[in-house]
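Chapter summary example.
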Amino acid sequence: MEKKLFGHIEVPLKRVHIELTNICEFNCVFCPKAEMKRPLGYMDTALAKRIISELKAGDVCEKVTFHVMGEPTLHKDLEEILEHAASVGMNVGLTTNGAGLGGRAGQMLLKHDLHQVDVSFQTPDSESFKLRGAGSRDFDQYLEGVLSFFAAYMKPRIDKGETTFKFRFLNTILGNKSLEERAGPIKVISSTKELRDTFRYWAGRVYDILGLEEERRAKAMKRIGKLSALGWNVVEVYPHIFFETYVLDDWGHAFDSDGVKEAWGGFCFGMRDHFSILHNGDVTLCCMDYEGQTVVGNLKDSTLLEVLSSEKVGAIVEGFKKYKLVHPYCKRCLGSRSTASWLFKPVISVLALKTLKPLFYRKTRLID
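The structure predicted for these 368 residues follows.
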């Protein structure tokens, strides 16, 4: 699709994140929820619907994704919001922790054809599930809810190819010192062997549900044996069904109280392929800004076009184009704790995200 300007932003973007709520029933140790100081709440339903209408009318994005912080299935009017998105022709992606998929939220979602469903599975066994801070929730019951929903949702849709379903797993092969100093050891998938064993097991569960014939299953399992944990793996285990690994992240030094040297430059996808709208209507630069530090306007008082046309947004966008960080939070987010890292990290970020991404971002298809 040909790019055009919407304010200072080249659109369409790949996605816009809409945070329906920043409330979550989990307390994952690898999430900055405990560090977050902004008020808890839910997006006003009328505001959510207006935002979706404005995004669609301006061809701002290919899809909206209900995700920043919080669990979107907790919003009492999620179904009404989904119905509105469908009525204006807006693609919707839902990112969920999966806890509600085995209950009423899951039953409601079965009626809606989502563009993408991402389950932040993260912890694929009962031992690592302890990192989720799930209270009295039992892992086996949680798992049964997720897989039952997957079967009910995808079986009638798999041949249509209109919905992508992703299971997200946490890759901890690269530890995070600051995070583990606060939370203790965080171990989920920490080696290539663990990655392959985990993917073989869960691919088997998926193939059992879909009734995949033995010959194709054997070929898929063999291909899993070629995966490496060093990298960002996006594995299509079956057409439109993906396993994806995410490296343990520090959320822009969320777990560092001090000692962070501000970056002198760098590269970021904020306002390039996405931006975020928090539950109170604040527009922020990217989905990693869990605290709302990069607010450039509020949609309760302004239209999206007015916000994205501001001089403030223009200066930030022009800075990004030249690998210059204008906003103080961006300088901290891409900053470093050591002098050596401070010197080279901006260069590495540009090379990694623009030039070397294919070496780290590995897309693999298991089924021909």
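To summarize the output: The first strand starts at residue 4 and ends at 6.
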